[in-house]
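debug: dumping io for the single-chain case to check the tokenizer round-trip. Nothing else runs in this session.
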Amino acid sequence: MQRFLLRASKNARPSGNGRVVAHRAAAAIAVGPSASTSTSRRNSSSSTLAANNAQQRTGPPTTSTSATARHQRPIYVAATRQHVGKTSVSLALISHFASRYGAPNVGYMKAVGQQCLRVWDERPVPQPQEEGGRGREEEGRYVVIDKDVKLVRDHFRLDHLRYADMSPILIPRGYTKSYLDGEVDHGGQLADIRRAYLNIVAASTTTTMCNEDANDDAAGSDDSGGEHGSGGRIADRITICEGTGHAGVGSVVGAGNARVAAELGADVVLVANGGLGRAFDELELNRSLCLQYGVNIAGVIINKVQPDKFDQTRTYLTKAIEQFWTGPNGEPAPPILGVVPDRPYLGCPALADVESAFGTTLLSGSDHRYRHYDVGSNVQGRNVGMSVITTDLAAFLRTMQRQPDGARTVFVCHSTRDDVVLGFLGEYRRRARRNIPFESALVVCTGGDDGGYAREDEVELSAEVCEMIMDGGPSGPPILVAGGCSPADAAKRIRTMTPKFNASDERRVSRATEHYSPYIDFDLLLERTSTVTEVAAGGEVATAAAS
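debug: decoded output
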């Protein structure tokens, strides 16, 4: 393969931190083995990730060319604060690019994670070659990863990626103290992130045509090819990096989102909740950290916008961003890449979320674990949503019988109310005999009741009633026990919880990607985060920023 060289930009800013430039190394992987050798020598220069980004955003190419190629920088999805839809945006991006380029050409990582789980990493791990024989390979190993990593890898079938690379750093309880006590090596921590990113880029680089190329060829397109000649080129590929919370989260351990984005040479997409004043204030705070680390902001996505304020939000936030974020020399402000209207369903908890909130499992009805409930819809006294049972049995039965077929209500009662539990089971069986859908759920609380028990008192559900509940089996009515809280406390916790995506909740993930995709300008995002390279006849590559 012919060796290509990247022409250095004259206006790239100097730097002096001496770090290995992960993003430039990733570019070497994309170009090919022969170019990688020369690129690795250049990596010894003391250039920062920000300088590398500036180098990639130079002016128009000055060389006559025979082919063009697009070099894609990683996209780092950060939020202005917690619970604004960062994971939803990441899912929409991955869904789109997996469809556009093919899943094997999409990479994903959550460089710094917090909520973790243990999984079996079944990707083979090469081992040192044994004397007198071939190198052996492990079948896999157990690794601890961020929970969102399992969700993304499993849902989008990103089997070409290793779990360990997708989640290089975790911050469990006690990690911050260990870091501040000097027990965690800062340099090694960042090196792990860069190494994981390069592994992801290598695993996501293929020489097959992407979906669009195949369609173009089928239609008789005469677009010139890249390294592989006319009609063929290395497939487009992209890596999505999901942050954790706002841009500063992780700073106490030297791994804040802005810092990590700079290390990877990534362009940041900032996600904020709908509104005007508060939304822009939060964007400005997070922008300041990006500027501090020399990170380019590719654009902004405004999430959970009230439908009746959709146009107003886009218009006035665009004006604010253009007025305050335009550069001193007239550099254009980052665009709004999308405005996404709110969809209440995505904020409705599933029974699996309720299980997690109370650290318990369903006694019956486990087949309905991913059934969703609009627990806030009964604030005006309607008979759906959530209801704390304080009435007698007759009134409770009338409430259930007035519900329309298939209505979903979470009923909450105390464990001393055996009559309510038996009435719930009876109504389920009555409807089952008549083939009437019954989709309500029951939460039984064992903690101090508001009507006389001290909060520290526990009143266990009787063994006989528990047995009757469990007789319903996985397909029965969903009932769970919430220990240590009163019905009022349980209802408040359920109503105020923020549901999270679950790898097994395929419906919620699919609904999220379907909802977000129409409102995001993916083509503009690619323009803002890519560099056009033109391959000259002499084998030299000139760069021109698409952003």
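debug: round-trip ok. Residues 186-203 form the longest helix (18 residues).
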